[in-house]
Amino acid sequence: MANLKQIAAELSLSVTTVSRALKDGPEVQPSTIARVKEAAKRVGYLPNHHGRALKTGRTLTLTAVLPMETRDHLSDLLKLPLIEGMTLAARQAGYSLSIYSTTPDDDPIESVQRQLQAHSTDGLIITRLVSGDPRVKLLLDKRMPFVAFGRTDLDTAYPYVDVDNEQIAYEATRRLMDKGCRRIALQLLVPEDQASAMRLSGYGRAMAEAGVPIDQSLIGHGMFTMESSAAWFDRLLASSDPPTGLACANELGLLGALHALGRRGLAPGSDVHIVTRDSTRLARFLPARIGIHSVDMAGVGRKLVEVLENRIMNPLGPVETVLMQGRFEPAE
Amino acid sequence: MANLKQIAAELSLSVTTVSRALKDGPEVQPSTIARVKEAAKRVGYLPNHHGRALKTGRTLTLTAVLPMETRDHLSDLLKLPLIEGMTLAARQAGYSLSIYSTTPDDDPIESVQRQLQAHSTDGLIITRLVSGDPRVKLLLDKRMPFVAFGRTDLDTAYPYVDVDNEQIAYEATRRLMDKGCRRIALQLLVPEDQASAMRLSGYGRAMAEAGVPIDQSLIGHGMFTMESSAAWFDRLLASSDPPTGLACANELGLLGALHALGRRGLAPGSDVHIVTRDSTRLARFLPARIGIHSVDMAGVGRKLVEVLENRIMNPLGPVETVLMQGRFEPAE
DNA sequence: ATTTGTAATCGTAACGTTACGATTGCATCT
DNA sequence: AGATGCAATCGTAACGTTACGATTACAAAT
Quick one: pLDDT band at residue B73, thresholds 50, 70, 90? Predict the structure, then answer.
C-alpha cells in the first residue's frame, strides 16, 4: 500500500515535504508540488485515515444514533430518506457516516457515552429527544459537536433541525375545516413527545381561531402502529357522535384508520375527510382520497449534516437551529 | 482523555503491561490484571480506535454500499430492516457499520475502489449485483473481504447471502393455483435482474407442474413504481381475457395493483387473487384480502455481517453462501 | 568578509496502540 | 556457589501522519 514514505523515497524528498506538497503548502516549490502529485497519482496514493486521525484528532467520521423499532419496520419508514440525505451530504463534505442503531432495550445515554469516549467520531447526530434529554447536557459538557433531530424543553441553546409540526398541524386542521369538518380527530404519539405536543398546539390554534371547542375524546395517543390506530379509530367511528375529519400522525396511522373505515364500509373523502403526513410517497398512491402534506426528510438529513459540519468547523460559533416546513399537495 | 499511558503512570506499570492486562494476557499476574481493569473502569478508559487501527491494520469498521432511489423512497423500503440487521449485528461483533450511499449517477465501481484504497474498512457489503459484476472480480483480486447481497452469473465462487426467489415464486404461484387461478400475472423488475430471473423460473416451474402454458402477455417487466404497476395491471384488467391471479414483485407493485383494481371497483380476494411479498408488514394491514409471504430482511442483514465477519477472520476459509427462505402466512 | 534574509527542504517527535525481544527477581537444580 | 528455569514485567520500535523547529544554500546587505 502506497504511503508518504514510499513517495518520498522515490523522489528523494523528505516525508514532510511530500506531505506538504500534497496539500499545496506554500513552503514547497511549485515544480516539486507537481512532481509529488504526479507520483502520488501514479502509485495510487490515498492518505491513511488512521494515521491522520491519530495525529490530528479528527476522524472524518460522523455518527448517527438511530433508534430502531425492531418489531415494526414500517414505523421507521421516514428514516430511509433521512439516512439517504445524511449519508450523501456527509460524503459530499468528505465525511463518512456511521450508523449506530439502538434497540428499545438499549440505554440511550450509554450509546452516547460510548461514542464520546472511543474518539471514533467527529460529531454526533441524535434523534428522538426526550424531555430534559440528558444526552444534550452531556454532549455540551464534553464539548462534543452534535446536532439533534428534534427539540426538547431545555433552557440551554443547542443546535437542532426540526420539522415545524405546529404549523403543519395548524394547516392540516384548517384544511379539514375548509371541507366542512368540525369534529376533527387527531392522532398523536405520546404526550411527552415534543412533536406530538407541537401538533396538538397547532391543532388547538386552528380550532380556537374557528371557535370550535376541543373535545378531548377525539385526541388519540399512542398511535405508533397500524393496529393501535385501527382500534382507536374504530372506537371513534362507533361512538354516538363520530368524527368527520381526521389528521393522521403518519403513514402508519393512516393505514390503520383506512383499515377501520374499510371494515365499516365507509369511504375516505366523503364520509370522513382525512389529512396525513407523507414522507415516503405512500399515501398518494393509495386508492383513497386523502389530503397530503409532505416533509422532505432527505432535506432534513442534509440539513442535519450541514449544521453538524458547521459546528465541527466552528465550535464556538452561533448555535444554528433550523425549522423545516411541510409542503401541502394542492387540494383535491 | 484516558489512555494507556495514564493508567500505566498511575499504577506504576509499563504501558505494555497495561495493554496486555486489558486483554487478559497470560503473561500478566491475575492480581495486576484486576488492578488494571479497576483503574481502566475508574478513569473511563476506552481504547483509541485509530491508534489500534494504525498498529494492527484492522479498522473494526464494515462498510455497506447501498444504492438509493433518490426519487422514490418507498422502493427502498426493505433496506430499513436490512440496515437494522446489519448495524445491530455489526455492533454485537464489535464493529461499527458505515453506510456508503450511492445515487443512480454514481459509478458503482468507483465507490468500491475508493473504499479499497482508503484503508478505512475491514470489509465491504455490496448489493444490487449486475451480470458479471466487475466489483466482485476487483474485490477478490485485491483480497478485500466482502459479501454480496444477491447472486450473479460468475464462474468464480464468492460469498453471498440471497433470498431464494425461485422457491418463493414457486410457492406463490402454487398458492394462487390452489385458489383456482389459471391465468396468473407476474410482476418482475428487469429481465437482467437475477432476482427477477429466479422468480420467473419458479413461476414457470409451478405452471409447468400444473400443465398450464405460459402466456407472455401476463408477465410484466419494469414494476419499479406504483405508477408503472398500476398502469400495467390496468391494461391487463381491460384485456379480453383478464388475469384471475397476480403475484406482486413487492409492496409497491401491490399498492399499484390495488390502485388499478380500486378504480374498476374490483376487490382483491374475490375478483382477483393476489399474493405479495411483504418485508415491512405493510401488506398485512391493508384493508384487502391478500396472500402474504415475508422475508426476514433484518435476518438477511445479520447474516451478511456474519458471513463477512467469518471472511475477515478466515480469509482463506471456505466460501460461505446462504439462501434465505420466505415464510408464508397461513392461508386465509 | 561577515552578517542578515529568504526560500526550500529536512529531521525529529508525537498521536495511542501493539509486537517482540530483553530484563528482572526469585526459586530450584547441579 | 553457580547455573538454570520460570514468571512477571519492561523498553523500544513501529504503524502513517502532521506540527514545529531546525538546517541548508544562496543572494543581498553591511
Answer: low
Q: Which of residues 253-292 of B touch A (CB under 8 A)?
A: 255-256, 258-259, 261-263, 279-282, 285-288
**Distances, alpha carbon A12 to alpha carbons A38, A39, A101, B27, in Å:** 14, 12, 48, 44
Give the chain B residue nearest A297 (alpha carbons): B73
Determine the residue type at A6. Answer: Q
Whole-angstrom distance, CA of residue B37 vs CA of residue B43 = 10
For chain B, what's the residue count? Answer: 332
Q: Hey, are the CB atoms on B46 and A96 less than 8 Å from each other?
A: no
Using the Cβ of B227 and the Cβ atoms of chain A, whether some distance falls under 8 Å is answered with yes
Listed in sequence order, the residues at least 6 apart from B244 whose beta carbon sits closer than 8 Å to its beta carbon are B180, B181, B182, B183, B184, B271, B272, B273
Cβ within 8 Å of residue B30, ≥6 positions away: none
Q: Which of residues 53-82 of A touch B (CB under 8 A)?
A: 53-54, 59, 61, 63, 68, 70, 72-74, 76-77, 79-81
Whose CA is nearest the C1' atom of nucleotide C6? A27
Please tell me the distance in Å from A207's CA to the nearest CA on chain B.
31
- CA atoms of B330 and B332, how far apart (whole Å): 6
Nearest-angstrom CA–CA distance, B19 and A51: 20
Say if the Cβ atoms of A262 and B287 lie within 8 Å: yes
Is there contact between A7 and strand C, defined as CB under 7 Å from any strand atom? no
Q: Which residue is nearest to nucleotide C9 (CA to C1')?
A: A17
The answer to whether the C-beta of B23 is closer than 7 A to strand D is no
In chain B, residues 304 through 323 whose Cβ sits under 7 angstroms from any atom of nucleic acid strand D: none
Q: Could you read off the pLDDT of B129-176 as tens digits, one per residue?
A: 888 899 999 999 888 999 999 998 889 999 999 999 999 999 999 999
pLDDT at A262 over 80: yes
| Predicted confidence band of residue B312 (pLDDT cuts 50, 70, 90) | very high
Q: How far is CA A44 from the centre of its chain?
A: 37
Of B53, B98, B261, the CB nearest to A98: B98
Predicted confidence at residue A282, as pLDDT, reads 79
Lowest mean pLDDT among B191-195, B214-218, B316-320: B191-195
Q: Which nucleotide is nearest to A23 (CA to C1')?
A: D18
Contacts of A208 (CB under 8 A, 6+ apart): none
User: What distance in Å separates the CA atoms of residue B19 and residue B33, rounded to the nearest whole number?
Assistant: 10
8-state DSSP, B194: H
Calculate what percentage of chain A has a pLDDT beyond 70: 97
* A217 pLDDT higher than 90: yes
Q: Do B73 and A44 touch (CB under 8 A)?
A: no
Tell me: the pLDDT tens digits for A225-253? Answer: 888 899 999 999 999 999 999 999 988 89
Q: For residues B219 and B197, what is the distance between their CA atoms, to the nearest angstrom?
A: 12
Rounded CA gap, A179 and B270, in Å? 34
Q: What is the mean pLDDT of chain B?
A: 90
> How much is the mean pLDDT over chain A?
90
Q: Is pLDDT above 80 for B287?
A: no
* Chain D bases near protein Cβ (<7 Å): 7-21
